[in-house]
Specification:
- The chain has five helices and four strands, in the order E-H-E-H-H-E-E-H-H.
- With 138 residues, it is of the alpha/beta class.
- It has a single domain, classed as 3-Layer(aba) Sandwich (Rossmann fold), CATH 3.40.50.
- Strand 1, helix 1 and strand 2 form a beta-alpha-beta unit.
- Helix 1 crosses helix 4 and helix 2 packs across helix 4.
- Keywords: Arsenical resistance, Oxidoreductase.
């Protein structure tokens, strides 16, 4: 693990779950982490309900753009967190891989997206607690 770990969040469209996770990781981890997000089949824009849900928690992801998953993004990451993209993510030895089983917020209203957002926040907090030294996260 490098001094500043790089976390890659991946979902199919890179428009909801991975964008929310990246928003939390960047906000909560600050300059102690590098955060990337990508999708195996990215959409052309971020899910507007995901943007709204994150804004409710004070995080602005409205200017983010979905990105295609690349082998280089996986190679340069210390932790790769997938959310429903199956085998689309290349595997490299020595990396931490986790698959978070989260409901896709696509097509859902704000009342259905809030619990997904809250679960993502909880998981990101736990991940950061594991990746960052205790004295840095105090």
């Amino acid at each position: 693990m490098t001094a500043t770990p790089t976390i890659l969040f991946v979902c199919v469209h890179n428009a909801g779950r991975s964008q929310m996770a990246a928003g939390y990781a960047q906000t909560l981890g600050g300059d102690r982490v590098q955060v990337l997000s990508a999708g195996s089949a990215p959409k052309d824009q971020i899910n507007p309900v995901a943007i709204e849900a994150m804004a409710e928690d004070g995080i602005d992801i409205a200017s983010n753009q979905p990105k295609i998953l690349t082998t280089d993004a996986v190679r340069e990451s210390d932790a790769v967190i997938t959310m429903g993209c199956g085998d689309a993510c290349p595997i490299f030895p020595g990396k931490r891989y986790e698959d978070w089983d989260l409901t896709d917020p696509a097509g859902k209203g704000i009342d259905d997206v809030r619990p997904i957002r809250d679960e993502i926040k909880t998981r990101v907090q736990a991940l950061l607690a594991e990746l960052l030294p205790a004295e840095a996260s105090a």
